[in-house]
Amino acid sequence: MKTGFVGVGSMGGMLVRALLRAEALDPKDVWVANRSPQRGEVLAAEFPGIRLTTNRELAGHCDLIFLCVRGSDVPTVLAQMDPELYPGQLLVTTASVIPLKMLEERVPCRVAKLIPSVTQEIRAGITLLMCGSRVTRDDRTLLEELLGRISHPIVITESQARPAISLTSGAPALIAYLMQSMAEEALRSNPELSSEMALSMIQETAAATLRLMEETKMTPQELVGRVAVPGGMTALSIEILSRHVPQAWQVIFKETAEREAKDRAMLTL
Ligand SMILES: NC(=O)c1ccc[n+]([C@@H]2O[C@H](COP(=O)([O-])OP(=O)(O)OC[C@H]3O[C@@H](n4cnc5c(N)ncnc54)[C@H](OP(=O)(O)O)[C@@H]3O)[C@@H](O)[C@H]2O)c1
Q1: What's the predicted TM-score (pTM) here?
Q2: Which tens digits make up the pLDDT trace of 219-258?
Q3: CA nearest neighbour of 68 among 27, 101, 96
Q4: Is 151 exposed, middle or buried (0-12, 13-18, 19+ CB in 10 A)?
Q5: How many domains does the chain have?
Q6: Which range of residues forms the domain containing residue 28?
Q7: Is the distance from the beta carbon of residue 169 to the nearest atom of ligand 1 less than 6 Å?
Q8: Does ligand 1 lie within 6 Å of residue 119's CB atom?
Q9: Which helix (H) or strand (E) holds 33?
Q10: Which residue has a Cα nearest atom 47 of ligand 1?
Q11: For labelling alongside 225, which of 12, 106, 158, 197 has CA 20 to 30 A away?
Q12: Which of helix, strand or coil describes residue 93?
C-alpha cells in the first residue's frame, strides 16, 4: 500500500515522522508532496527512501492519502490532484473545517477526517477519527490500526467534533497556557521566585498529578476534595476559580463553535 502525505508542515510532518519512527510505514511506500520543497527535503534526509513528488503524481499513485494542508489551501490542492483521484482511494483530511459530506461530493474517493494532536510527536495522546459515508469497515480498521501505532484513536461523529477537538488537539496548548499563566502570576505576587523555578514547579507537579490520578484511579473531584481542605488556602483558591473558570470555558466553547460555523459558511471546494 502506498501512503501519501500532502502538506508536511506541523501536523503532516509530525504524522510522517511518528508513523515512520513507529515502523508503521515503510519509507519506500511513503510519498510526500509539499508546496515549498524544503520541508520535503528535510524529511527525505531524515528518512531515506521516501519519495518526494507533486500533488498530482502523488494522487495518481497512492492508495491512502493524508491531506494535511490548511482548510483554505484544500481547494487549490484538490484542483491539482483532480485528474488523478479515483474511487479506490481513501482520502483523509486533517482540516476540521471541511465537512465530510462536502468533500465526498467533491472527490470520487472514500473520505475520512483525522484530527491529530501535537502529542503524537511522542506517540501519545488521542487522534480523532471521523468516517465519511463511503468508508468501509476495512478502511476504518486500517486507519485505527495505523493511528493506533502512534496514538489512541477514537472514532467520533462530526457533530461531536468541536468540543472533542478542544479536549484533544487543542488541549496541549490550553493546558500549557494555564500552567504558564499560573507560574507568571505566582511570580508577580512574589518576585522572590525565579520564573524558571515557578514554571518547573508547576510543570513537575502537573506531571505528578496526572500520574497520581492514573495510578490511584482518583477522579478530579476526589483529588480536589483531598487537597482543598475546608478553610484552607487551596479551598479558597478553588472557590475563586469556580467563580471564573467555568464561565471562561463556556465562552471558549461557544465562540469556537460560532467561529467554525462562520468559516464553514464561507467555504467552497
Ligand atoms: N496544528 C495543529 O495542532 C492541528 C491539529 C489538528 C488539525 N490541524 C489541521 O491540520 C491542517 C494543517 O495544519 P498545520 O498546523 O500542519 O499547518 P502548517 O504547519 O501550515 O502546514 C501546512 C502545510 O501544507 C503545505 N501546503 C500548503 N499548500 C499546499 C499545496 N498547494 N500543496 C502542497 N502542500 C501545501 C504547506 O507548505 P509550505 O511549506 O509551503 O508552507 C505546509 O507545509 C490544518 O487544516 C489544521 O486545521 C492542525
Answers
A1: 0.95
A2: 999 999 999 999 999 999 999 999 999 999 999 999 999 9
A3: 96
A4: buried
A5: 3
A6: 3-156
A7: yes
A8: no
A9: strand 30-33
A10: 95
A11: 197
A12: strand
